[in-house]
Amino acid sequence: MKQGLLTNRQKEVLRYRKQGLTQQQIADIIKTSKANVCTIEKAALENITRARDTLEFLYTLDAAHLCTLKGGLDLLKAPEIIYTEAEKMGVKVKYDTVSLINRLRDANPDRFRGRQVREDVEVYINEDGDLYFG
Amino acid sequence: MKQGLLTNRQKEVLRYRKQGLTQQQIADIIKTSKANVCTIEKAALENITRARDTLEFLYTLDAAHLCTLKGGLDLLKAPEIIYTEAEKMGVKVKYDTVSLINRLRDANPDRFRGRQVREDVEVYINEDGDLYFG
DNA sequence: TCAAATTTAAACACTTCTGCTTAACACTCT
DNA sequence: AGAGTGTTAAGCAGAAGTGTTTAAATTTGA
Questions:
Q1: SS3 call for A106
Q2: pLDDT per residue over B76-125, tens digit each?
Q3: What's the gap in Å between the CA of A58 and the closest CA on chain B?
Q4: A20-CA/C14-C1' distance, Å
Q5: Does B39 contact strand D, using a CB cutoff of 7 Å?
Q6: A68 closest CA partner among A119, A3, A14
Q7: Which residues touch strand C (CB under 7 A)?
Q8: What mean pLDDT, rounded, does chain A reach?
Q9: Which of B29, B62, B81, B117 shows the greatest Cβ crowding within 10 Å of its Cβ?
Q10: H helix or E strand, kind and range, residue A61
Q11: For the segment A15-74, what is each residue's pLDDT rounded down to a tens digit?
């Protein structure tokens, strides 16, 4: 089985970056263009995000499906929906209105355009009142 | 950017498995063969392992390169090498001989054949004496 | 403002992954 | 021995990822 998500190229670039080198310097060292170093570094960071998302998903396995935030919904209406559904299930949500919205946006920046939900977001809740999105 | 590592198919299978369904039952539900369900589940678990490995790598970024365990080396000789190198760097290794070997094998089962190192293993150490392999 | 650093986009070959089928094999029950 | 469950292997078509180059755009700092 293949090891991690990161290619050797990507690890190499991340290590040099950690040492404080510029993309140009790295490009010279590994004999390619600085644009390519940029691409590789970006891919590496994306892979790291994907790794985090993947493990995050595991939590949703322990959590129950709470509701679906449909595409087009106003983000500010999400908390009320979530609180209502959680109450039906007899679980107290761990977040207040403000931090709930922040958590939504932070957990999934790409899924929102301004105040609007771009595509359906599944909401899960565990018995501690923690929320997860998928 | 693509979200996590897991495909919808893989998430679907993991969810049903979590519910306690057999591969055959899932195969019936999602209309495919049980062999395929097995393949999908296996791929899912591999992806989860890869996600863990990826984040594990990040620790090596904070760690310094300690030494390389060359392919063909006897695994039992690894601790002495590591202790010697760590001493040179003035860092105390967090593991005793036995747990060090266990950690080596656990962190990277595929890289060893019996007592022999199959391919080069890079060893990193942080200031706490924690070891990471890459 | 100027130059360096970084980011983005498009296109291209190459490789890898994914889901799928079929068929065989192993293990554990009763 | 037979049924149920899980695993493995080979092969295939379609999708996605990787490293590259070239060229243009944007951000940043002095």
A1: helix
A2: 999 999 999 999 999 999 999 999 998 888 776 667 777 888 777 888 89
A3: 9
A4: 32
A5: yes
A6: A119
A7: A 2, 22-24, 34-35, 38-39, 41-42; B 5, 7-10, 30, 32-33, 35-36, 39-40, 43, 46-47
A8: 89
A9: B117
A10: helix A34-62
A11: 999 988 999 999 999 999 999 999 999 999 999 999 999 998 998 888 888 998 887 899
Instruction: Return positions of chain C under 7 A from a protein CB.
Output: 4-10, 16-24
Write the ipTM. Answer: 0.77
pLDDT > 70? residue A110: no
Alpha carbon dihedral B27, B33, B39, B40, in 10-degree steps, equals -40
Within 7 A of a protein CB, which nucleotides of strand D? 4-10, 16-24
Q: Considering only CA atoms, which of A62, A133, A54 is closest in space to residue A100?
A: A133
> How is chain B split into domains, by residue range?
8-58, 63-133
Cα(B25)–Cα(B31) distance, integer angstroms? 10
- How far apart CA A9 and CA A88 sit, in angstroms, is 50
Interchain pair B50, A6: CB under 8 A:
no
Q: Are residues B108 and B118 in contact, defined by beta-carbon separation less than 8 angstroms?
A: no
